[in-house]
Amino acid sequence: MIHSLFLVNASGDIFLEKHWKSVVSRSVCDYFFEALERATEPENVPPVIPTPHHYLINVLRHRIYFVAVIQSEVPPLFVIEFLHRVVDTFQDYFGVCTEAAIKDNVVVVYELLEEMLDNGFPLATESNILKELIKPPTILRTVVNTITGSTNVGEQLPTGQLSVVPWRRTGVKYTNNEAYFDVIEEIDAIIDKSGSTITAEIQGVIDACVKLTGMPDLTLSFMNPRLLDDVSFHPCVRFKRWEAERILSFIPPDGNFRLLSYHVSSQNLVAIPVYVKHNISFREGSSQGRFELTLGPKQTMGKAVESVLVSSQLPRGVLNANLNPSQGTYTFDPVTKLLSWDVGKINPQKLPSLKGSMSLQAGASKPDENPTINIQFKIQQLAISGLKVNRLDMYGEKYKPFKGIKYMTKAGKFQVRT
Amino acid sequence: MRAPPALSASAPRNGSRDSVSGALRRSASSSSSTAAAAAEMSASSAFIDEKGGSASEPEYGHDPASGGIFSTDYKRHDDLKEMLDSNKDSLKLEAMKRIVAMIARGKNASDLFPAVVKNVACKNIEVKKLVYVYLVRYAEEQQDLALLSISTFQRGLKDPNQLIRASALRVLSSIRVTIIVPIMMLAIKEAASDMSPYVRKTAAHAIPKLHSLDPEQKDQLIEVIEKLLADKTTLVAGSVVMAFEEVCPDRIDLIHKNYRKLCNLLIDVEEWGQVVIINMLTRYARTQFLNPNINESLLEESSEKAFYASDDEEDEDKKAEAATLAKRKPYVMDPDHRLLLRNTKPLLQSRNAAVVMAVAQLYFHLAPKAEVGIIAKALVRLMRSHSEVQYVVLQNVATMTIKRRGMFEPYLKSFYIRSTDPTQIKILKLEVLTNLANETNISTILREFQTYIKSMDKDFVAASIQAIGRCATNIGEVRDTCLNGLVQLLSNRDELVVAESVVVIKKLLQMQPEQHSDIIKHMAKLIDNIQVPMARASILWLIGEYCEHVPKIAPDVLRNMAKTFTNEEDIVKLQIINLAAKLYLTNSKQTKLLTQYVLNLAKYDQNYDIRDRARFIRQLIVPTDKSGALSKYAKKLFLALKPAPVLQSTFKDRDHFQLGSLSHLLNAKAAGYQELPDWPESVPDPSVRNVEVIRLLERVTTLTSIPDWSKCTSRKDRKEKKTEKPFYSDSEGESGPTESADSESDSGSGSESASASDESGSGSESEESREETESEDEEEDEEKEKKRKKRLDKTKAKKPAEESAESEQSSGTEDRKRGRKAVKNQKSASESESESESSESEDESEEESEEESESDTDIRKKKTPISKQPPKQSKKESKKERQEMSLLDLDDFEPAPASAPVTPVNFLSSSLVSDLEGLSLTNNILAPTTIAPSGSIKMYELLHRITGEGLAVEYCFSRQPFSPDPNMVAVQIQFTNNTNSETKNLHIEEPRLQSGMRIREFTEIDVLAAGESVTVVMGIDFCDSTQAANFQLCTHTRKFFVSIQPPVGELMTPVFLTENDFKKEQENLLNGKLMGMNEISEKLMLGEKCVNEHVIVERVTATANLSRVPCGSEKECRFAGKTVSSGCLVLVTVPTKEGGAAQLTVNCEKMLIGTLLVKDIMQALSQ
């Protein structure tokens, strides 16, 4: 399956290579570099590049290209999904997945890759299994190892590997037993010129941080489970129970994990928490353009809209923008033509606005592109879909855990066309 | 851009390395000097580690390709070699880390191979793992040296720790050295019937490796695959199907029996395995079931046609025909087909995009049309994932939307494009939107498209224009609207947009030019305003092509163009010539002069293409006397009817590739792609998937003791399989290790299993397989131990039931055990072994495993009473066999199991020590009778009297067993005090040993008077290696750094064997796992003095501590011994021939010892 892996940084240097079968010369990456040059934007490199003898499948994460070399038929998603899993694992181990972090921990990276793939076929990708095999590097452990000569490598087969719950190791102990759940929803929307919603959908996840002793068996029930008609689960969730009772029943992995993600599709009515009034116009023959933007809250269930950030890619003809924000700060990059306005919190009494003029190239005709406005925001303590957790129960252990549920709504890909 | 980083980067690297080597030097000197240095040493090693850690950073920026650092490179490798040779694990680890960093950078580290491979047996697990990494990377390049490591892996294969067994197999199978193919084959076969599912999984992984190394093994590998396919653990299922897909994807018959099991296990298999299994089952189902849409597909076809083409009566007929067909052959879905669909459906909820895609393609290819719809939602959900995932999913959705448009229609809006999407995603979304367009939604889609045309991403705008063109061709109602919209775009400033619009308009007009002469007229007017050359050229082509529809305007356009001809771009000029030629042919009256004029202008153009074209056209169209036959056809040449370009999706008919596959994505067959077969015409026999029920009945009696199976099944749907379970558990028993003895004859088919396991105890079993059982028993204990922790209430009395599996793998254990029990019962009559003996030997094995997993020690102690049972059993069994093998029962004198790990013995319990002493006593009694005369013992110097400042120390290998520890070599040390004063407190300090080596010091000598000498004995466990043991010899005043290096011959003790035994053992060694590897044979010429047998025996026994095996033939001398620490047999045969020629054969499982021994004996004999 996966023959080799090359890690390529933003400037096009291969800084790590790993081979699982016989060695593939790194010159195979030249095909990738060609594709990279052809692509105007970094994310426009085709994920699958055929070459005379191999196929290159790459993913771009954290400005690093992970290029896998394939020799024969394999589902491309299989490789892509695996590469993303590799990145997630690195992130999990090193906190960040940057070129520097990988270089600093090159031995751990190698050991991880060795465990994750055998002969190009995934072997152990579950993070708790990996962590028993190879302990994540910490400063303390490095010091201890230097003194005692112990290693970061486990000698026993991780218990999870053979059990029916491979995601959880045995013998977990905590003094504070706690289980926290974050319900995070992102709104993807396209709003048209007149302010009406073209499409809007909600992408929700429930992220959990469970630190419980022993083998707890949790059940999580919702007030309105019917909202969740399109869900994907962590493997720990008992699917049949969900099917029958609409209750999430699971033995949780230890630590942080994503319990489920769901999708409330565009067919449902989605509340849009902000509105935008805009007037961006260019007059024919004039070297000036008008720019006016006002934001306001809408359908927020009384919660404050925070961390608002507006950005827009202005037409190439715009030389500069001279604007006046009623709150927050704005920047305009004359090279990339990117305008961004850090609004902060929306005060319903005094709506934030950004007004002013744009100067165009003298003599140039009016740009015919319309800039779109991208908006980011956060609303605490609100799940915009209306999803609500009813209760969380624990079975199988005697102690009483701390429980907590947090809700948050964020803008996903929220765009306003002008 | 990608130039190597600046050379300056190497400067800090060198600096840091210097400091490291400095520290190294310091540590080396400190060890040879005083005791005070000892403390400093540990500090300095910590310093080294720290340095090494920080050194790796700047080192990184350095590029191997940059020149000028070769000298330092060379030096550095020396450095690393030194570190690897040291006996401190921390140094080795540091060195290995640096080497791995080099490999990661793609730097060549192959010259370190010998230094690295030595450490393959290192006890430090991290060093070991890194050595494995190195080995796998370079073994292919250094095949000969790589062979040295093989024996380590073979030992690892028998390790009680399943992780070590598995990793040994992983590395062994990853070493791409063709010589070891037979070894790999045997290792895989054995691992395939391992107790631990994890090891079996590894075995499954090893199959494709071996297959790619040597495709000739295919048949044997298929047998292993067949066996593993019957495995019922979820852990193995994915991996073995993977192996199946790589080795024998066409052997679909192997799946029949396992089909239902795979379907039922699927939900619990790990996600990667799920993908592989689902893809394979899709192919399987295509060969075994009938097309569920067999009736509908006909209906569908006709209805689709009715939709687009004008409906005929013929269609009605077809419908009727289809209806009758449906009546005639009602379709009933095979229950197995249904099972597959039902069991894969929940996986649409998987978090893994690859699994979702796999299920989606399965439904697309296999499900009845009415059920396919459910996949749409899941696929739409995937679109929120990473852009690469989105890209692949969209490709597949694009293909699906062509076949089944209705499925995605409700999700139309999810494919709307955002300005922030990457271009390639935008273009794919456009494709999907276009495919989804129909009469009802076209207006919304076109409105969307209008927004897209205003985007800043010009590639995307061009694609949008093409999409509009496609919508216009597909949906007649909007064609005019689209055309008008496109015409407006012609005034766009962007060249790309205009060119694309013109091209699309051109295509649209070609379909029905007669209706659109006004658009052509409009475009003719536009030509004054449009500056983009491509667009101008396109318009001119259009006018030329359809000049008959615009007879009045065309000449006028030509007139205008003739005026500006000299200022036009080349492509426009070419089209002007074309236009002129076409007009000349159709309307020569009005345009003759204009054409002449244009051709004349072109004749003197700077561009030779234009000049050539002008010359060619003039010859072709203007009739002259010389003009050839072609001019008659000029009109046909220029004004031939050009077929309208077909505007259709590039994704059309891509679904003949299995969706989700690489081949589908590339729209080209990738290497190794398995065609998705067409549905069969008639139903293949469904009974092939039935598993035998008769076998089930046979085992019912034994099954009664097994507690409820369903306990382990957390998911409801598995319950329905309950009745089948026993069968699987049975086949599991078959794959149990009891049967591994006859792995040669391989019995993959299930029917033999029971008898095979019964027979296994009948004495035909080989030595090795016996050992195998033992070591596995130990491991079994471990597993049992774990279980015991969970269920403490269970008692020893309920033993068989105790195993009874809350997890599936243990069911194997159980069956196997029962099998063994049966054997035991059979044999009980003949059993004559005393209880004490067996418990003694059991203690031994107990002890071994104790050290093996030190962490387990205390647990193990606690559970001794419980775990005693199984090893005892197996031991007895093996004893019995031995009885049959030879009447000469020498109890503990027989070679220790080869699998016994080389482990240090801690003196944990005094009773054990006494036991062991008892053992060595028997040795003592036998030893003198066989050992060579002591006169030949050679003395070696340990400390010269000058360097020792008067103290001279010599040592020899006494060849006496070392009583406190039989695994040690006894070294007799003689101290002589040549000074005038007393030497006090002679003792050993601070041994610096290779990993695994141990020293048992002699008791301190309090006083050695002047001129006196004293002899003491110390024990050293050399771990069967010829590495030196380093230590410090201390007096009350001084310390001396000394080392003892044993000749290979001293690493063994004699073993008394009869001739028959000898032959048997030799055969065992040869037929065992190592095959040829543990026999080393050399021809030699005997030295002049080696005149007779006696001399040869003397020489050989002097060289190596072996005993002679009585032999009938005079021409042949045989010797036997075993290595001291691990007890591997060493067999030496020297047949002599006429004229002093002889052949020396050494059989030993340890290759290194064998090789060295051959060398030494050769030397001794040829002198």
TrEMBL record, chain A:
Pfam families: Adap_comp_sub, Clat_adaptor_s
GO BP terms: intracellular protein transport; vesicle-mediated transport
Record keywords: Cytoplasmic vesicle, Golgi apparatus, Membrane, Protein transport, Transport
Lipid bilayer topology: Peripheral membrane protein
Predominant subcellular localization, coarse grouping: membrane
Residue span, MHD domain: 176-417
Keyword Membrane set for record: yes
GO cellular component entries: clathrin adaptor complex; cytoplasmic vesicle membrane; Golgi apparatus
SUPFAM superfamilies found in the cross-reference section: Second domain of Mu2 adaptin subunit (ap50) of ap2 adaptor, SNARE-like
Record-linked InterPro entries: Adaptor_comp_med_subunit, AP2_Mu_C_sf, AP_mu_sigma_su, Clathrin_mu, Clathrin_mu_CS, Longin-like_dom_sf, MHD
Localization terms from the record: Cytoplasmic vesicle membrane; Golgi apparatus
Presence of keyword Protein transport: yes
Family: Belongs to the adaptor complexes medium subunit family.
Protein name (database record): AP-3 complex subunit mu-2
Source organism of the structure: Cyprinus carpio (Common carp)
Gene behind this protein: ap3m2
UniProtKB/TrEMBL annotation, chain B:
Region entry Disordered, spans: 1-35, 711-884
UniProt GO BP: intracellular protein transport; vesicle-mediated transport
UniProt cross-references to Pfam families, sorted A to Z: Adaptin_N (PF01602), AP3B1_C (PF14796), AP3B1_C_2 (PF24080)
Biased composition annotated in UniProt, kind: Acidic residues: 765-783, 832-856
Annotated InterPro entries: AP3_beta, AP3B1/2_C, AP3B_C, AP_beta, ARM-like, ARM-type_fold, Clathrin/coatomer_adapt-like_N, Clathrin_app_Ig-like_sf
Basic residues compositional bias, start-end: 786-798
Subcellular location: Cytoplasmic vesicle, Clathrin-coated vesicle membrane; Golgi apparatus
Keyword Transmembrane helix listed: no
Keywords: Cytoplasmic vesicle, Golgi apparatus, Membrane, Phosphoprotein, Protein transport, Transport
Matching Gene3D superfamilies: Leucine-rich Repeat Variant
Topology in membrane: Peripheral membrane protein
Ranges annotated as biased composition (Low complexity): 1-12, 19-35, 746-764
Coiled coil: none
Gene Ontology cellular component list: AP-3 adaptor complex; clathrin-coated vesicle membrane; Golgi apparatus
Residue ranges constituting the AP-3 complex subunit beta C-terminal domain according to the UniProt record: 880-1027
Regions of compositional bias (Basic and acidic residues) in chain numbering: 714-727, 874-884
Similarity comment: family membership: Belongs to the adaptor complexes large subunit family.
UniProt function note: Subunit of non-clathrin- and clathrin-associated adaptor protein complex 3 (AP-3) that plays a role in protein sorting in the late-Golgi/trans-Golgi network (TGN) and/or endosomes. The AP complexes mediate both the recruitment of clathrin to membranes and the recognition of sorting signals within the cytosolic tails of transmembrane cargo molecules. AP-3 appears to be involved in the sorting of a subset of transmembrane proteins targeted to lysosomes and lysosome-related organelles.
The name this protein goes by in its record: AP-3 complex subunit beta
Organism name: Cyprinus carpio (Common carp)
Upper classification of the organism: Eukaryota, Metazoa, Chordata, Craniata, Vertebrata
